[in-house]
Amino acid sequence: MSYQVLARKWRPRNFEQMVGQTHVLRALVNALEEDRLHHAYLFTGTRGVGKTTVARILAKCLNCETGITARPCGECAACREIDEGRFVDLIEVDAASRTKVEDTRELLDNVQYAPTRGRFKVYLIDEVHMLSGHSFNALLKTLEEPPPHVKFLLATTDPQKLPVTILSRCLQFSLKRMPATMISGHLTHILEQEGIRADAAALDQIAVAADGSMRDALSLLDQAIAFGGGAVTDAEVRDMLGGISREHVFGLLDAVAAGEGRGLIDAVARVAEQAPDFEGVLDDLIALLHQVALAQIVPEAVDSVESDAARICALAERLSPEDVQLYYQIALLGRRDLPLNPNPQAGFEMVLLRMQAFRPVEASAAAGGGASPRADAAPAAPSGETANARDEALAAVSAARPAQKKTIESGPALRPPAPTTPPAPDPSPAARPVPATPVVEAPAAPMAAQPTAVAEAASARDVSDINWHTLVNQLGLRAMARSLATNCSLKAIEGGRVTLMLARAQESLRTRSVEERIEKALSDHFGEPLKLVIEIVDHVEDTPAQAVERGVAERQQAAEQSIAEDSVARALRETFGAELIPGSVKPLTSK
After folding, report:
1. 180-241 and 246-385 share one fold
2. If one looks up domain 246-385 in CATH, what number appears?
3. CATH class for the domain made up of 6-174
4. pLDDT by residue (tens digit) across 71-114?
5. Could you tell me the pLDDT band of residue 224, with boundaries at 50, 70 and 90?
6. Which residues neighbour 29 within 8 Å (Cβ) at sequence distance 6 or greater?
7. Which among 43, 104, 169, 574 has the fewest CB atoms less than 10 Å away?
8. Where are the domains of the chain?
9. Quick one: fold of 180-241?
10. 37, 41, 32, 28: which is closest to 169 by C-alpha?
11. What are the residues whose beta carbons fall under 8 Å from the beta carbon of 173, sequence distance 6 or more?
12. What is the pTM of this model?
């Protein structure tokens, strides 16, 4: 007997054998058990997720000789003939090859006749979106009022191309892509039944490559069995799929973390010797960065083999969370742009070089001197265009944080202004006003230039005379450390401890490395070792971030008021009944 491919051999014969799609199966089973049957069903979803399989099982449920049931016997003549594809009352049509209106009319000419053997005459039309407009018109009337002995089962990968008149006459079921873990588990079960040895890592690769399609996964599994001579191993599946070993991916990220350009180019050259698909290599690098980020925040969530887990944890200690997030964002953008580069290897190199170019100054220096980039020292201020570009990228990474939402949406806040010379401080603390909108990027002043009144007040532990808004701008904090500081308010300075209050909604801003940077900056500013303590409270008043939001809102309100009072706008309202659209007016950005 000729070999039968796994996709056909292991095609489900009933709903119990289906993998996934429980939301669809539940609705169909309930309808069959309660005898609430519709005359037309539409199954949608990407290729290989089970659309026609579900339709054939439903046809078997409708025509099983034991009666209409959600559990067909699989042994009667009707069930066997449907499984073998020769049941006379199941008419399967490939709409991709029969698009003409004449084909549709010929098909529908026999609708009026009763089924030959079964209980229902079932029309299964695959890729129904390929029918022509005239074919849909010919189908429409029959689909709206079919004879009681006819059921229509339609399947398509592109429901957007179906006329709404067709959609409105069908019960629509959307089949989902299958998770890689579900596919991998099913492949493991199949190989156990087939008696074929396989590596778990190899099946994971196949499951990811299948991209949610069980049929594609089974086809790749067939190919892997043939490629490996009856066994499915990790290395052979990687070669078959054109990927590279995990060792090379770790080597690339190690080279980026080391910050040494020569080593990075050599690592890319070693990868290029494997003639890989560089888009796939970048996908592997993105997946590794995701695992490193998980190891930093939720270590128990890292899903990897033991040897990989050790290296992932080592990278998590070596890299700062900010760098990991920045590398991830750069890799995603590079993945999008890589097809535009005529030389894929050069494009891949540029992505990695961009990761190094946007490293903090102190991290680059530490890497060059053999120290870890994740040093506890407070970050030095990057200079020039590199600093501004890094800040914009970090702002994009943290855009989802609640406290920064309005500031980010305002537009001008995303563009750090050019450094300006701070005004001369007023020697009298009482006469110094609280700024409505603190400067977004104020350079750190040297110790000799710090306001005497502020330093004296800190030494005296008199918090009432310390302006936290001004102090934050003088600390020279950047990126995530500045974001945390601007969302806090100062509570006390006593006993060598600086106590800040942070709202519970912004608690996600806290990380140990960020708090250490703020603590170091405060100690340097006041010239004495200080311990930072952050108290979590339900609500915080008068933080620098809130002042920025108020300033943005005030500028927006002033801009809208200015337009409302403009003579031209007033004339347009009076003459044509024009209305000002809220939010359409943007204040001018001050230079």
Report:
1. no
2. 1.20.272.10
3. alpha beta
4. 999 899 999 999 988 999 999 988 888 778 888 888 888 888 89
5. very high
6. 15, 70
7. 574
8. 6-174, 180-241, 246-385
9. Helicase, Ruva Protein; domain 3 (1.10.8)
10. 41
11. 24, 27, 28, 41, 42, 43, 44, 54
12. 0.56
